[in-house]
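Hi R.,

Here's the chain you asked about this morning:
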Amino acid sequence: MAAGNFPPPLPFSPRKIAVLHAKALGDFIVILPALDAIKRTYPDAELILLAKPWVKEFLAGRPSIVDRVIGIPLLAGVNDPVESKGQVLDTDSCAYPLEVDRFCQAMQGEKLDVVIHMQGDGKSVNPFINKFGASLTAGMCNPPAESLDRSIPYVHYQSEILRNLEVAALIGAHTTSTGFEPRIEVTESDEQEAEPVRQIIKGKPYVVIHPGADDLRRVWPAASFAGIANYLAEKGYEVVVTGTPKEEERVANVLKAMNYAALPCTDLGLGGLSALLQQSALVVSNDTGPLHLARAVGVRTVGIYWAPNVLNWGPLSRDRHRVAVSWQLECPQCGIKPVSPWPFQPQKPDCSHPYSFVESVPVAEVLGLATELLPSH
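And the predicted structure, written out as C-alpha cells:
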C-alpha cells in the first residue's frame, strides 16, 4: 500500500488489538503516540502489547493506554540481541522452537481481531505474527518478507515516531495535533524509589548527565561531559550522573574528570529514573533510552547525536529540546561511511570498528544549547 493512501477505519468493531514491539527503552518510547492513536480510535478494544518482560514491569501500576502486556519468547530477528543490531536474517532458516510454537498457539486462543507490528522490514516479524490467526494483520513489509493484509514499506531514514503513526494509520488510527510527543506518567511509586537520591540533593536545583549508551559509536567522551558538568556546577546546580549498572565505569570516568563533586546514580530502576529525570532542570545525554525517557516525562533535554541518527531519533519539537550533531561520517580506521542501508550496517565491507562517531561535538556547542534551555534560579 502506498504511503499516504491509507484505508478508512476497520469495517468491524475489534475486540482485541495486539501490537508487537519487543525492543529497547528508546524504541518503546517512540511507539507511544501510535498506541495512543489506536486506543483513541478504538476505545472499546482491548489493546495488548506483545513486548519484552521489562515492559510489563514498567507499566504495572502506571496509567497507560495499554490494557495488557504479554511477554514474548526469544526468537531470532524479533526480540533477541541479533535483531537489535539490525542484522538481516534468513527467515527460512529461523527455527520455531517448542516455546515459540506454544506462544503462537496461545495467541490463536486469544482470537485476536488485529495484529500490528512496529519493528523492522518484516522479514523476521511477519512470519511470526502470521501464525497468530488474527482476522487482520498490519505492519511494514519489504520483499521478500511474507505479506500482511495491510502494509507500508520500511524505509530506514524516517522519524520513528512518524513511522509508527503511519503503521497505526493502516487500521484508520490517527492522532491529534497534540498527540505526536510521547508521554510517560510518573507515579507515586516512582517518586518513592527516587526519594533517597533526592534526600542527598536536599531540594537544590539539579541537572542530570547521562554519559552511557549501548553502542560506543554513540558515546561522547567522559571529559566532554565533565566540561558540561563543571559549568553547570559553577552555575549552582547539583550534578547527578546517571547510568545503568554496566555503565558504572563511564559514570566514574565523568566524576574523575570533574573539578566539582557530583552524585553518581547507577542503581535506579526505570520508574525511579523517570521521577529523578522529571524533577531535573535539564538532562544532557547521548542518544540513548534515558534521553527518550526524559523527553517523555517532560524535562528539557540536550541530546548528542550522530547526524544520520537525528533523522530517526531526534525530537520532533525544539521548544524544550536541542540536538548537538556530529557530522563525522567516515570511520577513522577504514574510511567507510557506514550509512547504507542503515547506520553501521553497510552491506560490504562491514564496519564495526570501536570508535565514537560523536566525539568531535564541541563542548562549547553543548554548553550554548544548555544555556538556552536552563531556567533562571
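DSSP finds 14 helices and twelve strands in the chain.

Let me know if you need anything else.
M.
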